[in-house]
Design a protein that fits this description.
β4 and β5 form a beta hairpin. The N and C termini lie far apart (64 Å). It is elongated and about 85 Å long. The chain contains 10 helices and 9 strands. It has 3 domains: 154 residues, Jelly Rolls (Sandwich); 45 residues; 58 residues, Homeodomain-like (Arc Repressor Mutant, subunit A, Orthogonal Bundle), CATH 1.10.10.60. With 267 residues, the chain is an alpha+beta fold. The strands form 2 sheets. The protein has a 5-stranded antiparallel sheet with strand order 1-8-3-6-9, with helices on one face. Strands 2-7-4-5 form a 4-stranded antiparallel sheet, with no helix packed on it. 50% of the residues lie in helices and 20% in strands. It comes from Paenibacillus contaminans. Keywords: DNA-binding, Transcription, Transcription regulation. GO terms for molecular function: DNA-binding transcription factor activity; sequence-specific DNA binding. InterPro entries: Homeodomain-like_sf, HTH_AraC.
Length: 267
């Protein structure tokens, strides 16, 4: 899908609904669907597509359906199903697959406006009804524009996996600094939710767990190779508070820093 296609056509809003449960979508050949994840993640699959973990959005094309949306059994998830058609009818509209955005707040606001315009605003004349139809069409077009534009920008950048790997290398080199999820997600060029899911897929651990493990491993290395006091080692490993360091060390290693030092002296 490209903007040359987009410029020649008009997306027309038809329906919006919110869901927290798994479902199958199978609309007619003229109806397209945009799945927008608001919380957590869902898995989307089709008869011809391997299951895809979706953390932001997925464009469903009627030629590839039906689409099965699976919500994780152990985690909460909420998503929007946004149905639209394209004019002129029978136009070539190929938008299909995962979509990315850095403008999640803006997208959420526009979705809220679509819901409000659809469900809460009453129209009493044909002119008022036409005005609301134009408003919904413009919002729909804007949502699609943002997803298409920012997905293309993401594809121009490094692949998602390479972006995560780069931040993992950054963590390994800068573990002693204050590292936060927003900072690392921004460095990777993706949303915090998308970064969280991909980070765990790549490393097998959450960001917090991975960072703790790195810092404790570095602390153990310093205990073995230096004669620095435990408080200094805690700071150099990235812990501002020694008591927090001691508690985490015991959780990860199974003994306190003091006991660990004693065990080293016996070797």
């Amino acid at each position: 899908m490209n903007f040359q296609q987009f410029a020649a056509m008009i997306p027309v809003f038809e329906q919006i609904e919110s869901s927290r449960i798994s479902q199958t979508i199978d609309y007619n050949a003229s109806r397209h669907v945009l799945i927008v994840v608001l919380q957590g993640h869902v898995t989307v699959s089709t008869p011809e597509l391997e299951p895809v973990v979706v953390t932001q959005a997925f464009a469903c094309h009627p030629q590839h359906g039906p689409f099965e949306i699976l919500v994780p059994r152990t985690k909460d998830a909420e998503y929007i199903v946004l149905a639209y058609r394209v004019l002129p009818e029978n136009s070539i509209w190929t938008l299909f697959g995962p979509l990315r955005t850095h403008s999640e707040v803006k997208i959420k606001y526009m979705l809220d406006e679509l819901v409000r315009t659809t469900l809460e605003i009453d129209t009493y004349t044909a002119e008022e009804e036409a005005a609301q139809q134009v408003r919904k069409r413009m919002i729909m077009e804007r949502i699609l524009f943002i997803f298409l534009y920012e997905t293309q920008m993401t594809q121009v950048d490094k692949s998602s996996a390479a972006s995560i790997e780069e931040t993992v290398s950054y963590i390994q080199e800068h573990y002693m600094l204050k590292l936060t999820l927003p900072m690392l997600a921004q460095r990777a060029g993706m949303s915090e939710g998308h970064y969280t899911v991909l980070f765990k897929q790549l490393t097998g651990a959450t960001l917090t767990r991975y960072l703790r493990g790195i810092r404790i491993d570095k602390a153990k290395e310093m205990f073995r190779q230096t004669a620095l006091p435990a408080k200094d080692i805690a700071q150099r490993a990235g812990f501002a508070d020694y008591f927090h360091f001691s508690r985490v060390f015991k959780q990860e290693v199974g003994c306190s820093p003091t006991d660990y030092l004693r065990s080293l002296s016996k070797i």
